[in-house]
Structure formats: structure tokens, C-alpha cells
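A reminder before we start the practical. When you read a complex entry, don't treat the lines as separate problems. The point of joint prediction is that each chain is placed relative to the others, so the output describes one connected object in space. Small molecules and nucleic acid strands, if listed, are placed in the same frame. In the example below there are three entries. Take a minute to note the order of the lines before looking further.
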Amino acid sequence: MEEFLQQVVTGISIGSIYAIVALAIVLIYRSTAVVNFAQGEMAMFTTFISWSFLLRMDFWPALILTSLVAFALGGALEMIVMRPVEKASHLNSVVVTLGLLAIFNSVALWRYGPLPRPFEKPEVFTGSPLDVGTITISRLNIGILAIAFIIMVALFLLFNYTKLGLAMRATAQNPTASRLVGINTSRMLALGWALSATVGAIAGMLTAANQSLSIDMMLAILLFAFAGAVLGGLDSPGGAIVGGLAVGVIQALAGTYISSQVDIIAAFFVIVAVLMVRPTGLFGRRVMRRV
Amino acid sequence: MPAVLRTRTIGWALLVLVLIFFPYFHTWWGFSWFLQHLESTTGINLTVFEMTSLAVWVVILTGLNLLTGYSGQISLGHGALVAVGAYIAAILLDRTATPVAVAVLAGGVGAGAVGFAIGFPSLRLTGPYLAIATLALIVSMPQLLKHDDLIDIARFTGGASGIDLPTAHAPGSVEGLMDDRQWLYYSTMLPAVIMTVLAWNITRSRIGRAFIALRDSEIGAQQMGVNIAFYKTLAFGLSALYAGVGGGLFVYTQDFASPESFSTFQSITFLVSIVIGGLASILGSVLAAAFFTFQTGVIAQLADYLPAVDRLRWAIYGATLIVVMILLPAGAAGLVQRLGRLRPSELLAVWQAGLRSPISALRAHPIFERLSGGRGDDGRGGGTGTGA
Amino acid sequence: MLSLRDVHASYGPVLALRGVSLDVPDRGVVSVLGPNGAGKSSTLRAISGVLRSSHGEIEFEGQRVDRMSPEQIVRLGISQVPEGRQIFGELTVLENLRLGAYTRRDGAGVKRDIDRVCTYFPVLGERRRQEAGLLSGGEQQMLAIGRALMAKPKLLLLDEPSLGLAPLLVREIFKIIKAINVEEGLAVLLVEQDANLALDIAQHGYLLEVGRVVLDDEAAHLRQNEAVRRSYLGY
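Here is the predicted structure of the whole assembly.
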């Protein structure tokens, strides 16, 4: 029983990163009906940028600065690369995100090389792991969970209690009507990407702090994040968090009780299972269409 | 006969001739000089073996194009289906006395079945689900192939080291006519041509039209009475079949199969290839295969001049992908088709216009519209507009 | 107040407007009639800025608006109730109305106007927290009109408001539109297939066919016009 609880807690810790990345995916999907397959690589790239910031400053200032850079990057990407294909078919947009995936991966590899590098943890989260009863959890993991929660609350407030958030939701649902009420839909789309890139950047830095910084650190995480997003519902931010955490737990439990060799396969099965049983995910409302 | 028809049919006829005689005339003095020169300048190594590999990729990419180009579904993990076909064929060839043709076909059928199984749940829905599911499949493929814990899959698949097969030899009946390499070429090229022609027929049939209707507007297609779920699954199953046959041919020509042969990046390269080659076009699939086969050589050649190219290979592919999607969505094949319709005098005009067109295409980019203070153009009218 | 001069517009290669000229006077109600595909909706889209005109001029209160963005045009005081209503189905009635006031900055004024809209359309007030997608067709139409009114427009564009609605309901809505025109001094440009209804409340009418204005007359005269009667009024 204790083992089980420990694994659940470990799973939640792993899952909190998936949750944040899943949130970034859902953000773009909700506002543009496009899945950004480059999400992971963008996060990895911005994390490498943060690494150079960290040479001169502490973690938190570096996080803020990197977030700003990511915000600008995301917005710029939408305006320059995605805008021309958004009007065309869905297929084109997805292919373009794959192109971005390739570019970010490659440029990072070229610039920074294939070797992993150590990444500084924020001060607050160093120190011995906490023990709650017989269960151990590292401070960093609690921190990641807390940050995931904060991001979720911030986005929730943004979307449901601000005019801007309302406009973004409107744009996602009905771009034509949005323009007719005077919303600058182009700006909303760019904003969606900008926010998503920022969330991704934060996830990247936390991932690097949790393991180490390397070119391929986000590939597997992206997959699990997708599983989480699908499980929670591609159009539900809350679902993304729950889904991400759930996938982490499934991974931990599957790894312990079924076989240590099945963690990636488990993600695959989660996705297929969700699609078979409840395609809209746990909290998703509908399968979005771009008409 | 109209000029149009002549150019195109001559083109294809020439191609067929080249294909038939290539293994022989490529050693003739004039050609071998040409081929050597080609290799040293562009890095394209046009040997019989490379052409044999080309045939394999043509099969795989034609299948993928049926799925993505014609039906508009994205498969990010097509390599996984190739792997299924490859491993089925490899296991049969390694452990039983199955004839090669049967083994390859079995690979195709097996992959088709897997494709159906995965495709069915994902394709019931609109959206990126197939893309996500196939990505998950290819990423988990290595783990699946090496697994020896719950079910000893590795016993069959050879785990991390894969399966090694003896090199294929030309059968006694053709001894003297051709050597092993040439035999390999013909025995691979023939099924490739057959399957390509088959695909061409499919695209021109009712099925092909249903695919296209599906791609352009699912809702519209549904209203026209097209059974969406059926055709989507059919498209995916067909492409899986092709992938499986391609996988079997891969194993036949390469004599081995291992988890490393089917990476995530390979699957992405498949997609890059058909986009550059030309979506929704059989010619495009062939051009895509050419791209896929010779890209390594060309990149290596470029890297001799610019070392950074090697590391930035993927950035180049990615950038090319994006540029093609924005400026030339029909890919190289689209360009070729458009040019093929013209008379020589018109070609010149197009060339001149072509030099200007990247610039005008750039100027048409939304960001320039904004900078010049223009309004957005909702050309399609959104919603339900019928232009009333 | 609004004038179009020789406006041309196309969707890609398809020419939708081939030189449309019309005027909407201050506080007036003008109707645009015509068969499907005539270019009626395209005219409204061009005015609102979502369809770019390739030629011609659109002037509103003395200003050239044909090159402005949709945002700017809404701010200037032109608001459209689009064809098919186009409400935000997953948002609440209240959120839909608030979005109508997107370009405004006066919070108190917005609140007042929400109440005013609910006076014209009481059902919206009753269902203010409901998801808009759950409303009936007629209620959605009212919501679409209410949303457009929230922008405090000087000119209201209506694109086929009667489409898909029961006749009784349509009459009700048209009465309210006329009332709004009279009480608030709001000019109305109405695109309608139902010529009877349209000419009932309009003072002036234009008949559009294949992207061109073929008839331009007072509503009363149009009613008497032989061709109009036969093709569009049904008698």
C-alpha cells in the first residue's frame, strides 16, 4: 500500500511537467484549432536560451526574462510562419509546425551540441526531500506542482474574467463573428501562440532543473503531454492538468506493477483507449472543427 | 494530338524506358561518366542499388500520399507501419521457408491490419487525433520491439540487434542474364511499378474522388453522402498496406531490420518528402522518393563546402517544408504539372514570371498587408456565406 | 450617412460585386433585395470590412472606410448582424452581449445598454447566463441583433434576419427593428430575401442582381413595380 502511494506521488511529480506542457498545447489548440507539434522543441530551445541567462543571474529573473523572450518568439512565429497557412487547410498548418519542430531541434543541436549540461535549480527547491509519513517527495517536484497550479489559475482568470480572455475564446469559436464585433482576430491568434510559448518555456526550464538540459529532453515529454491533453480533452485547460498528472501516475504505476519497459507504450495505449472510449477526453466538450 | 498530351505521355514513356534498361546501360561508357560526374557535383549516387531503394520508398511514399495528400489525414508515425511490415516479412524469411513474394505480401497485410486497428478509433473523429496517435506509435515502437518482459517480443524481433537475413541472390533461371544486383532491381521495381499504377487507378476511381472530397471538406463530403468513417479508414488501411509492402521490400533489399531503421525522424522525413515532392500526386510521390533516397548524399556533398549544413540538415528540411507549404503547396509535382501543360514559348514567360513570383508571394504575406494598413480579407466569407 | 460608389469585390477569381452604388440616409431604413447569389451579403461584408473591395468607394459620415480594418469600422459606428446569426455558441448570452461592446470603454454605459437590449428582447434577460448555443433560432437572432446594438452603432446592417425563422417571430423582430430605428434614430441597412417584410419597414430599396443594382427606388414604388411584384413579392 505504501509502495502504491509512493508511486502515485512520484507519478504526480512526473506528471506535473506533462500537465504544464499539455496546457501549452491546449492553449494553442483552443485558440487556433491547430496542434503545435513543435511545442516541445520550442520549449527546449527557449530553455537553452535561459541557460545563457543563468550564467549572469538567478533562476527566477532568468525565468521571467526567458518567458518574455518566449512570448515574443511565439507571437512572431504565429505572425510570420503560421498566418499564411492558417487560412488554408488544417493539414498545412500542422505540416508547418512539423517544420518548426525540425528547425528548432536542428538549430539547437548546431548551436549547443548534443551533450547534456547541468542546469541550476532554483534555491528554494534545493535541499533534502520532504517526508510525509513514509512517502518521499522532492522539494523541486512540489515546486513544479505549485507552479503548474499557479499557471492554471492565472490562465483560468485570464480566460474567464477578462475582456481579453473573452475575446480570445470568441476568436477560437467564431472568427468571423469576432471580427464583426471589432476584435482583432489576428492579434488574438498571435497572443495565443505567445502565451503557449511562454508556458512551454517555463515547463522547459523546470524540466531541465529536474534532470539536465539536453537537446532531446522534451521529445518523450511531448508525447506524454499529448497523451495527457487527449485524456483531459484537447479543448480543456483544466483537463490538460488533470490529464497530465494522470498520465504521470499511469506511467509510474505501469512501470512498477506491469513492467519497467512499458512506460512509453503506456502513453500510446492511453491515447488509443481514450479515443476508443471517450474521444472528447475527460473534460473536453466537443471535437473542435474548423469550418 | 494536343501538345499537352504529347509532352506528358512522352515524359512517362521515357521514364518507363529508363527504368527498364537502367541496370544495363548505366555501365555504358557515356552514362557511367555522366553518373560519376553527377555524383561528384551533386552527391546523387545513381547506382542500381540506389534505384532499387528508390523503388522501395516509392511504394511507401505513394501509400503515405494516398493518406495525406489525397485524403488529408496526417500520419506522423508511418515508419511504424513500415516496421510492422518489415518485421513480419523478416521473421517469415528468417524462420520459415516462405517465398519472398509471400513474405512481403504478408507484411503488407499485417501492416494493413494494424493500420485498421489504430485507424478506426482515431478516424471516427475530426481533428489531429490520428497524427497524435501515430506519433505515439512511432515513438513507442523501439520500446515495443525490444520488449522482453511481459511478452517476449524480442525473441522474434531480435531485440536491439534486429534480424539479419542472407543477401538475396538471383535465381538460377536468370543466371547469365543478370547479376544479383540487377535481379534485386527488377524484382523490386516490378512490384513498385504495379503498386504505383494501382494507386494511380485508385485516385482516378470513385474511391479517389471520395478521398479528395473528404480532404477538402469533411462536412461537405458527408452531406454528399460519402461515408466518412469508411473512407477515412480505407485510406489509412491502404496506406498501411503500402507501408507494409514497402517494409517487406525494405527487408528484402537491405537484408536486415532493426529498431533503429525506423526512427521518429524518418517518419517526419517521409512527410517532408511528400510535401516537397507534391501532395495528392503520383508524380509527387515519385519525386518524394527521389528526394528521400538521395537527400543523404546531397547533404553530405553540401557539407563538404559548408560543414554547418550537416548539423543543420533538419533546419534546412524544416525551412523547406515551411516555404513549400506557404509558397508552393502543390510541391515540385505541382510545378512540373503546370510547366508540362505549357508550350515551349510559354515556358520562357513562366520562367521570367517565376523569378518575380517569390517576391510577389512575399509581398502578399499577411504581415505586409498589416504594415501597409490594409484590412483583412475574409475571402471565403466565413460562416454560411453563399455570396448572396 | 453611408454611400457606396461603384464598389467591386471578389472572392478570389469569382466576382461578387460588379459596381454597386447605394445610399443610406441618416436615420433611414434601406433595404437591399435580390435573389441568392446576387451579392447582397457581399455588399454588407464589404461595408463591414471583412471583404476587401477591389474598386470603388465606401463613405460613412464623410469618411472613406473601404480601406479600414473591421475593428475601425465598428468603432466608427457600423455594426452588423451577420447571416446565420453567428453567435458564440459556447459562451453565455451575457458574454455574447459583452462582446458586442468590445470596442467600447465605458463600463457603466455598457451595463445600461445590456439592460436596454433586454428591454427590447426580454427573453435575453431571462436567459442571460445560459449558453447561447442552447437558444432557439429566434432567440439567437435576437441575441445577434442585441449584440450588434451593444456596439452603440449609428448604422445597423442586417443580413437576412428572417432566415429559418417562423413568420410570427419574424414579424415580431421586424417590429422591434423598426421601433429601434424610430426611438434611437439608428439607420438600418437591411438585406432580405423576404421582400414583403423588407419593403414594409423600409423607405427606400435597391434590387441587386448578379452583383449590380438594377432597381433603385422608394419602397412604395418598388411595391408597385411589375417585375418586383412578380419575382419577389409573389403576386
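Discuss with your neighbour: Strands of chain A lie at 130-132, 135-137. What might explain this?
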